[in-house]
């Protein structure tokens, strides 16, 4: 049962990455809000830059925030508002941004 | 979007206007660059203008703003409490100008939705395909007896940053030890829901250090407020002798102000202030009313996908002026809405349908320079209303260690640097 669920989740992830790549520069839902805190320019801030960052890394961090594996101030509360597919799409989009 | 999209205009340029006109059922005016006029150069308007120009450099974007310098409200409570200078709040439009946006330093006087035209104070008439209003708030000078523009020179609201901010700071600095600062906080909705409580906190911080026999009293027209438990627990710890909150149910609602005696009158009491900070009831900025996009509440109903007015087509409204469901009236909200609105307008101009957005708000408050708390939310349209995504968002934990409060204060400062750089840098 659990294995099946994971498989389904994996399949969704693949689909969403493919979709995100096809429409490369169109921001997926939620993505543009991030730059309120995550500077798109290289800046002197404790908040990491998302532009150009590895998509899998962003996804892993979001999952860790959502599941509580990574302690956070606000990102735990924000990560809970996004599905796996949404996080994948946002991560893929940021990975492409310069 | 700028790479992926083939706009009508690009098509026209490459195929030639005559051929394109024959192929596409467009009126002749469509051959011109689309025109978007943005009124209001704050976190909402300036963000929207920039985001739209970045998405589609072919759009002629005109930003109308009365002031040459923008003075940011977030962190202005720190100016009042002597933690920072007003200059740290101020930004010019030079960088925005450099992106190819036309910045008109003037007021918009009238909007003609039928002709899709805006009249400016200097007599210029600008036509638009899409108009964006980001007018922020105006004070409701008729809402609190005794409180008018002349009264604000004695009892500052300091709810629009600038001279009012400096005035309140000077009054507090000039106050003798043992004095009372009274803040009147309005009923919902108003700009920056945690703002009055952050202000009270930072003033108490100043008083505790510089004038320890003094105190700040909040007279409130509400029984509940943003981040309430966090503020109250911090006040108990940090300012037990310097800060008092009077709820609506305890007679906190100010019904009249008496300027000459600096007195705030409530249902049961008269409170004499040494410094009175009256945060009055508010409404959407005046141009919203003029354009017909404000409803009887004084605020602007919008479509949560495009931020187009529900009252007047082709006019979009952003930020504090809107009725935005669960989204509070914050700079973060205005900036997030602006980017969604810009993407929607780019789509609408190219004849495609905007998809459902998701938006985030994060709002920090400082209870002391090294003590930050936050509220966050994730929103999506549900039945035409921007609604909190269940299970997400909320405030900082009640039992967090002091190190986490310090960390949030650092993030609060970082947020201000980042967002002002995105909008004005």
Structure description:
- The complex is a heterodimer of chains A (98) and B (425).
- Helix content of chain A is 53%, strand content 0%.
- Chain A contains four helices and no strands.
- Chain A is an all-alpha fold.
- Chain A has one domain (2-96): Orthogonal Bundle (Cytochrome Bc1 Complex, Chain D, domain 2).
- In chain A, helix 1 (2-22) packs parallel to helix 4 and helix 2 runs antiparallel to helix 4 (84-96).
- Chain A has helices spanning 2-22, 55-67, 75-79, 84-96.
- The model of chain A is unreliable at 1-24 (pLDDT under 50).
- The longest helix of chain B has 23 residues, at 402-424.
- In chain B, the strands form eight sheets. Chain B has a five-stranded parallel sheet with strand order 5-2-1-9-20, covered by helices on one side. In chain B, strands 13-12-11-17 form a four-stranded parallel sheet, with helices on one face. In chain B, strands 22, 23, 24 and 25 form a four-stranded antiparallel sheet that branches.
- Helices cover 30% and strands 25% of the residues of chain B.
- Chain B has 425 residues and is an alpha/beta fold.
- In chain B, strand 22 and strand 23 (371-382) form a beta hairpin.
- In chain B, helix 3 (43-55) runs parallel beside helix 11 (331-349).
- Chains A and B meet through helix 3 of A and helix 11, strand 22, strand 23 and helix 12 of B.
């Amino acid at each position: 049962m659990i294995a099946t669920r994971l498989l389904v989740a994996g399949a969704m992830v693949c689909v969403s990455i493919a979709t995100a790549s096809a429409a490369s520069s169109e921001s997926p839902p939620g993505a543009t809000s991030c730059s309120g805190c995550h500077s798109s320019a290289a800046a002197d801030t404790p908040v990491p830059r998302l532009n150009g960052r590895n998509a899998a890394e962003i996804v892993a961090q979001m999952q860790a925030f959502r599941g509580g594996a990574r302690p956070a101030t606000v990102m735990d509360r924000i990560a809970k508002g996004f599905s796996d597919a949404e996080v994948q799409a946002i991560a893929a989009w940021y990975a492409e941004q310069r | 979007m700028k790479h992926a999209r083939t706009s009508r205009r690009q098509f026209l340029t490459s195929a030639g206007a005559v051929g394109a006109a024959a192929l596409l059922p467009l009126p002749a005016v469509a051959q011109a660059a689309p025109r978007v006029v943005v009124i209001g150069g704050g976190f909402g308007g300036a963000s929207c203008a920039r985001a739209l120009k970045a998405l589609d450099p072919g759009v002629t974007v005109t930003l109308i703003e009365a002031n040459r310098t923008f003075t940011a409200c977030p962190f202005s409570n720190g100016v009042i409490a002597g933690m920072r200078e007003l200059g740290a709040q101020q930004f010019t439009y030079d960088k925005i100008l450099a992106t190819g946006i036309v910045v008109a330093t003037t007021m918009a006087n009238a909007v003609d939705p039928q002709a899709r035209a805006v009249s400016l104070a200097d007599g210029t008439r600008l036509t638009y395909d899409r108009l964006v209003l980001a007018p922020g708030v105006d004070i409701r000078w008729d809402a609190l007896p005794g409180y008018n523009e002349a009264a604000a020179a004695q009892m500052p609201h300091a709810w629009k940053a600038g001279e009012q901010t400096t005035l309140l700071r000077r009054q507090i600095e000039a106050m003798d030890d043992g004095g009372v600062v009274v803040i009147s906080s309005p009923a919902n909705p108003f700009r920056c829901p945690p703002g009055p409580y952050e202000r009270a906190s930072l003033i108490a911080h100043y008083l505790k250090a510089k004038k320890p026999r003094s105190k700040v009293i909040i007279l409130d027209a509400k029984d509940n407020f943003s981040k309430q438990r966090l503020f109250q627990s911090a006040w108990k710890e940090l300012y037990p002798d310097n800060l008092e909150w009077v709820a609506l149910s305890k007679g906190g609602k100010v019904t009249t102000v008496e300027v000459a005696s600096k007195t705030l009158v409530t249902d049961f009491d008269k409170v004499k202030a040494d410094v009175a900070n009256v945060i009055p009831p508010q409404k959407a900025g005046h141009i919203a009313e003029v354009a017909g996009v404000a409803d009887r509440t004084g605020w602007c109903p919008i479509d949560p996908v495009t931020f187009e007015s529900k009252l007047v087509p082709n006019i979009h409204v952003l930020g504090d002026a809107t009725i935005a469901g669960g989204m509070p009236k914050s700079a973060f909200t205005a900036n997030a809405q602006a980017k969604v609105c810009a993407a929607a307008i780019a789509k609408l101009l190219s004849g495609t349908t905007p998809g459902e957005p998701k938006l985030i708000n994060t709002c920090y408050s400082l209870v002391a320079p090294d003590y930050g708390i936050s509220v966050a939310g994730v929103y999506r349209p549900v039945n035409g209303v921007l609604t909190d995504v269940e299970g997400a968002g909320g405030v900082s934990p009640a039992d967090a260690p002091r190190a986490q409060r310090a960390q949030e204060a650092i993030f609060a400062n970082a947020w201000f640097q980042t967002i002002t750089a995105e909008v004005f840098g």
